[in-house]
What we know:
By secondary structure, the protein is an alpha/beta fold.
Amino acid sequence: xxxxxxxxxxxxxxxxxxxxxxxxxxxxxxxxxxxxxxxxxxxxxxxxxxxxxxxxxxxxxxxxxxxxxxxxxxxxxxxxxxxxxxxxxxxxxxxxxxxxxxxxxxxxxxxxxxxxxxxxxxxxxxxxxxxxxxxxxxxxxxxxxxxxxxxxxxxxxxxxxxxxxxxxxxxxxxxxxxxxxxxxxxxxxxxxxxxxxxxxxxxxxxxxxxxxxxxxxxxxxxxxxxxxxxxxxxxxxxxxxxxxxxxxxxxxxxxxxxxxxxxxxxxxxxxxxxxxxxxxxxxxxxxxxxxxxxxxxxxxxxxxxxxxxxxxxxxxxxxxxxxxxxxxxxxxxxxxxxxxxxxxxxxxxxxxxxxxxxxxxxxxxxxxxxxxxxxxxxxxxxxxxxxxxxxxxxxxxxxxxxxxxxxxxxxxxxxxxxxxxxxxxxxxxxxxxxxxxxxxxxxxxxxxxxxxxxxxxxxxxxxxxxxxxxxxxxxxxxxxxxxxxxxxxxxxxxxxxxxxxxxxxxxxxxxxxxxxxxxxxxxxxxxxxxxxxxxxxxxxxxxxxxxxxxxxxxxxxx
Length: 558
């Protein structure tokens, strides 16, 4: 359940971290008014060092780069950090299959300069994937056939070609400039047409969407489930090096980045659209002048296939996905060789409910979800995708610690048992592929303490390193939009933090305690603090002042 973007596509049912919208201010807290939780003296990494060595926080690039209070709090109290989004596949892999570590490298450099170790998160996950690229690999593995016709243009009557309108007004399009951005929109001659949209970005905004043209919706019959929609767009830039981001969004966010040339060119790509009406948006995150024309969208199932066309066979699909999974694991571990010495190799592999290995058959699919197990296998045999992933990780660098990470292990004993069974299968006969298990622990003030104890005991029975990997404690259990964090609630939260730390120390032998990572720093940057569901789940308030929850951790190690 991990998420906090030059991400190509980023959507998930459980996305954690910063979004394009500012996080609302959570309800205020006052540590000093809570009896029993007033002793805030000390530094976490010092207070916890005798019980476990790796006290950590989840961090994001924007806050580490631009917020000194945030950065200094992490530096003062933490030993290790986990990147919220920056090392997810969807943040690294571009739709042409190239890898872009620019943001992740920049965040690593900030952390390293501040004396912080980095825990790698994550190499294989079903969410926050570049599904455009992965599904494209499968499509290309099939037989294209000869002839055939594409489906009709879904934007034919809604001005995807910009011909309707006058001057700098384009029917069905809304042109926006927000934040600190400076830009203008105009009418110019198109690519073989009389009208096209021209955007001149003088000053890019802080957000990629600050200069944005919002267009018509793509009507996709029978969605959901997701359907492959083929897009094309003509673009010409005044100078090389710019960027146009085509976004298709309703509830899910899909995106495709284009670096246009200085001549008219047609760019084609496919997206997995899971909504019946998703809006076309054009984002302009870089300075420059761009002309846009002839946007089309088509559903290939509404066309006719060529003679001899055939989709990829299961064996062909498995081969290309296996190769790409290995390439991403190997490239990422090698890229950070000598820098990142521990990784979540596989994340969230056990489904909720029946606790089977996760596939599209037991998990609702979103726009950025891709299930490796669907193609590579989830049986307990040599084709098991988790087994393969850990083999590839060990081959890439045997000295790197390899973790498997999952959520709700503190909630479902069945899920805990299933994960342990999988770990034992992968490590059978002394294979020693998995070094540690991360239990995320996104819990609440009402979480079942007996289940927490059971989880630690069961995980520790493997003899592997055990890490609390993404901890937060929700206080707004009613999910009320008018929630206020009173002293009783904050005391209960502090007590839960204390209990978890005590249980971890009691039930996990010292040699197996890898450490504790809290998923965020101040309440304002928590993934569960939203406008509709305000919350205060972390150790520091909006001003980076220690809360009662901080004292709970302190008391837990005493």
